[in-house]
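ugh finaly. both done.
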Amino acid sequence: MKKLLLAVDRLSTWIGQAFAWLIVALTALISWEVFSRYILNTPHDWNLDAQLMGYGTLFMMAGAYTLAKAGHVRGDVLYGFFRPRTQAAIDLLLYIVFFMPGIVALTWAGWTFFQDALAIRESTFSATPLPVYPFKAVIPLAGGLLLLQGVVEIVRCVQCLQQGHWPSREQDVEEVDVDKLKQMVHADGARS
């Protein structure tokens, strides 16, 4: 079971990291538009639509990655003081009552939106229209990935309730903890 959970974590991580490269493409797209608009005096009407779809895709495809890394916002001020079993019970309840129904609804509605957009070949309302249906395909895809990662998180909650400690996760990146950093470099915080 542990291998399966970590495999889903790796999938979510790989997809999240792959789509993170969109930020480079978006930076280039915005830079090109600024250069084109202010230096060459040739703005592009499609550019803003492309930027919005790119940022939307980046945001949606980061959901499963963030869930796999336990990076979503929660009330850590109180939550951190609870024992692992209490944390798991709270998480399990919230996953079942709020997360799963919400993500199922998102995925279902996203599939419907995508099908409707594909049927009419929906495009943006600009002089140079861009197709919208590929962007809308991202909604059910992101929802499906979130559902898969959500099932993994529910299994982790059940395992924590049974064992009294959280099962392991795939490691990726961590926020910088200044105290740990000082210990690593043997600094006491004083200037030399």
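ok and the 2nd:
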Amino acid sequence: MQKLKIVAGPFEFVARMEDELAPKTCAAFNQLLPFRNKIIQARWSGESAWIPLGDLDVGLGFENHTSHPGAGQILLYPGGYSETEILFPYGSTCFASKMGQLAGNHFLTIVEGSEQLRDLGRLVLWEGAQDILFTRVE
């Protein structure tokens, strides 16, 4: 089981890659590591932050996809109706865009640090964009 370290603003998390349920998504994301970007408050998805990826083509379809991820169940939306993005739920979430409800590939699950998810949510909501970095746990 492969794990990733995620540093978002001042918070650190460890996430399990869902290799069995989303092998293609995990493999595609592995090619991007280390992955550095900004995380901001989601606009339509409730208690969730997101990482906009614009027109990045990750070459994926849907696998292990959901519209209702739980807190700490991270999704990669491969694009189509909306731009490519990573959704980072910290509470009650219904994944959506201005086009309506979406589904994204659940490929990471927070296994350490989940008690900090609400604090991360408050930070991105009230203080704005935060740096985020995904790296392999050695």
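summary for the 2nd one i guess: The two ends are 12 Å apart (CA to CA).
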